[in-house]
Design goal:
The protein has 2 domains: 116 residues, NAD(P)-binding Rossmann-like Domain (Rossmann fold); 146 residues, Succinyl-CoA synthetase domains (Rossmann fold). With 294 residues, it is an alpha/beta fold. The longest helix is centred in the N-terminal third of the chain and has 13 residues. The radius of gyration is 19 Å and the shape is globular. Helix 7 runs parallel beside helix 8. It starts with 10 loop residues before the first strand and ends with a helix. Strands 3-4-2-1-5-6-7 form a 7-stranded mixed β-sheet, with helices on both faces. Strands 9-8-11-10-12-13-14 form a 7-stranded mixed β-sheet, with helices on both faces. One of its GO terms (molecular function) is succinate-CoA ligase (ADP-forming) activity. Pathway: Carbohydrate metabolism; tricarboxylic acid cycle; succinate from succinyl-CoA (ligase route): step 1/1.
């Protein structure tokens, strides 16, 4: 089972013909992802060969969907043009847009998030500034390494790309139903709560791992949601226990102001909701093992 992405998903890549898009399209294909096209208005009508797999290039998302039945787009478009690319995907009403691009202006992210909402949220946005999502053994939409885990019973939702990879590797012998990197920017499409809701409804996810980090109140809101709506065991990790107050750390959203947004406050809120929280990623993985062995 899976959330948001499975072996039936037909994936297109906006920005496929750029160097980053080419590199990761090749890797996604190697992971078994059903990539049916790329989008580049200047190269429409051409195709790109990836180790013997020919992938056609279309002028627009709408054209690609019409010709291939695509229902997922992965966006590798530079920051200045990313808003237009996401708006195009929303206008075409593709079901899922995975925005990998880092460095998109918060104003642009807020604009395309609001635009998706105004159009009835027909397009789920994951990201921006995220590693994407993977359903091991089925499909990989983004930049998560496909060889660090296997299919299994754990659902993972994470703000941090690097910690996504570490957690998948730590628990590789158990495996994952799906892993979703939601990104750490101040404005993102899919939230911890969206993923928790989907994992709760997925019959083949037995346990959820949630990775947060300092800044904002997303983890506190997720804790409230878990308390009210999630029956499955959840283990958590919050990055940034040693972060200095008032300094932005790494992700644009990771800034502590006053007592809100600290790792300690988030840990406290999650534990009050019954979530076991590890002090390190390794300890968090061990907590997951103990619950599943239970």
């Amino acid at each position: 089972m899976a959330i948001f992405l499975n072996k039936e998903s037909k994936v297109i890549v906006q920005g496929m013909t750029g160097s980053t898009g080419m590199k990761h399209t090749k890797l996604m294909l190697a992971d078994g992802t059903n990539i049916v096209g790329g989008v580049n208005p200047r190269k429409a009508g051409t195709s790109v060969d990836f180790d013997g797999t020919s992938v056609p290039v279309f002028g627009t998302v709408a054209d690609a969907m019409k010709e291939t039945g695509a229902d997922v787009s992965v966006v590798f478009v530079p920051p200045a043009f990313a808003k237009a690319a996401v708006v195009e995907a929303i206008d075409a009403e593709i079901g899922l847009a995975v925005v990998i691009t880092e460095g998109i202006a918060v104003h642009d992210s807020a604009a395309f998030w609001a635009y998706a909402s105004s159009k009835g949220n027909k397009t789920r946005i994951i990201g921006p500034n995220c590693p994407g999502l993977i359903t091991p053994g089925q499909s990989n939409a983004g930049i998560i390494p496909g060889d660090i885990t296997k299919p299994g019973r754990i659902g993972l939702v994470s703000k941090s790309g690097t910690l996504t990879y570490q957690m998948m590797y730590e628990l590789r012998d158990i495996g994952f139903s799906s892993a979703v990197g939601i990104g750490g920017d101040p404005v993102i499409g899919t939230t911890h709560i969206d993923a928790l809701k989907a994992f709760e409804a997925d019959p083949e996810t037995d346990l959820i791992v949630m990775i947060g980090e300092i800044g904002g109140d997303a983890e506190e809101r997720a804790a409230d949601y878990i308390k009210a709506h999630v029956s499955k065991p959840v283990v958590g990790y919050v990055a940034g226990f040693t972060a200095p107050e008032g300094k932005t750390m790494g992700h644009a959203g990771a800034i502590v102001s006053g007592s809100s947004g600290t790792a300690a406050a988030k840990k406290e809120a999650l534990e009050a909701a019954g979530v076991k929280v590890g002090k390190t990623p390794t300890e968090t993985a061990q907590l997951a093992r103990e619950i599943l062995a239970g």
